[in-house]
Each structure stands twice: as structure tokens, then as C-alpha cells.
Structure prediction request, 288 residues.
Amino acid sequence: MISQKARYALRALLYLAAQGDTGPVQISEIAESEKIPRKFLEAILLELKKPGIVRSHRGRQGGYSLGRSAKDISFADVLRVTDGPLALSPCVSVMAYRKCDDCFEESVCAIRKALLAARDATAEILESRSLATAAQQLKRSGAL
Amino acid sequence: MISQKARYALRALLYLAAQGDTGPVQISEIAESEKIPRKFLEAILLELKKPGIVRSHRGRQGGYSLGRSAKDISFADVLRVTDGPLALSPCVSVMAYRKCDDCFEESVCAIRKALLAARDATAEILESRSLATAAQQLKRSGAL
DNA sequence: TAAATCTCTATTGACTAGATAGGGATTTAG
DNA sequence: CTAAATCCCTATCTAGTCAATAGAGATTTA
Prediction:
């Protein structure tokens, strides 16, 4: 299960993606529109800023905007920030590999083989879906 | 990430699968061979018993054995018991569907569409891999 | 009948998730 | 200039979960 933080992040980013290029959007506006606790959202956006998923603009009329084109921000990008690796085990994580604590011999581990296949399958899906993909679906459904 | 409980469960079940049909195996034997805390393993096997993944035999010379053929116990079966639904969101879970707490309109949710695709991809993998598959891989690697 | 097992309930410590609070730093519109 | 509006940071709290442990009761069969 993804965390509440991940849901908030995705909703906020989709909100930004839907605005297009109309300048930075205030935290308060996003928070109210998407019903996200303001301070919590603040913390989330700060985290999303580090890897460049969003950009911040300070001062009066400041706010947040997407750090790059919506089509270049995948669901995988976002979930990795909010929830850590997509993989079901550290030993099959590509972005954050780590040996399992009590692993005897990784190359032989039959559990690992299954989890690796699972990781590849989810990563392929989540990396192929971008904010642009999602925003377009919303538009098509008439929700925008 | 899967829980430690899930790791222990999979290891214990693989151990049972590797034994074949040589009667029930004692908890202590599994615990020592696989380096799993005895009492914790006890609790795990009890949970695996409810849905029939294992069968218990009481009294002297008692122990645990697989509840059905190893080829009919998938990784998905096990992970659902130890870690709950495979889905990344309750609203895309097939076995344990639940509406998201703050969902506006599910049929339009673009986040849901992506998570649903992810769920289908992982479920397909994890349901197609059984204890038998894994045991056979171990045999081929010469680890058995 | 007693040894060896399963079964159950309760508890503990460490850690994380989700949320809140308050104030300091920075920018830029006016 | 300067002050309003923002970003930025640290600390804290509560509730819940994970992993593990303990102890005793129930059941079976050698």
C-alpha cells in the first residue's frame, strides 16, 4: 500500500500539471483545493523539490510549479520520493540496492527471483505513466 | 517492501516444499534450519493454517506440512496472508477492495488507473510463481 | 500417562506515519 | 525601503505497526 503522503503528493502534482504554465501556485491554494493539511503539504513539496520534481518561487506571489515537463515526471519518480524503493525487497531494488540482512547466497535465492520479476513488472508500469498521461485521462473523462 | 514475517513464511514454506512427503516437520527443526525465532515462527504458521496453506499435526511426532500441493501455493497466496493485499491502494485490491477514504469519484481517478495497472502486473507475476517453481529453481542451482 | 507438540493471550521496545506548531529566513510587489 | 507573503526548518505528539518474547493451557499419541 502506498502512504497517505504519496497520495497527497500525486494529487498536488496533478493539480499543478492541470494548471499548465500559468506561473507558480501557492501552497494554500493547492491545500484547499485538494483538501490536504497545509503544513503537511509544505513538507511534502519540500521533499519533492530536492530531486527537482517541483521548483519553488519565494516572496510575494511565490509558490510551486513543476520542475520539468509533466510528461517527464512518472508515478515511479514520485513514489520513490515519498515511499522509497518500488521493490518488494532491498536485494531487488535497482535504485537502492542492499543485501538482505540474513541472506545466505543471493544468486541462488528463489524468493529473490520471484520478487525481482515482480519489481520489473511494477517498475515498467509506473515508469511508463506520467503526470501528463494522468492529466490527459482526467481531461478525457470531463473531470477538468 | 515485504515484511520480515513474509520472508520467514516463504523460507519456512520452501523448507517444507523441499522435504517432499516425509511426514510432518517440527517447528523447532524449521526454526533452527532457517534461523527463524521459534515463537515467531509458531505464530506465522498458525496464520498460514487458517487459509489452509499448511496443516498441523499435534501430539508427539507432530509438526507442520503443506496444506496442498506445492504447485498450488503461490507467492501471492503467502504474501496476502502475511502482508495483506498486493495492491498499492485499497481501491484497486481485488481480494480486499475498499474505497479510498477521501476519494471524490473513483471512476475518474487518474491515480487509480495507474495503480490498477500496477496491481495487475504484480499479481500476474506473483500468482504464477509457486513454491514448486521456487523449489525447482533451488534444485537446479545445486542448492539442494 | 507423560512427553512433545500445538494453541492462545498478553506484553514489550523500537520505530514509523500522519499531523501540528512556531518561528526564522528570504524574496519581491508596492 | 519595507512589510507582506512566501518558503524553510526543527521539534513535538499521538496512534499504530513490526518484530520478538514469555508463559501457560490444550491436545494428542508413542
Strands of chain B lie at 54-57, 63-66.
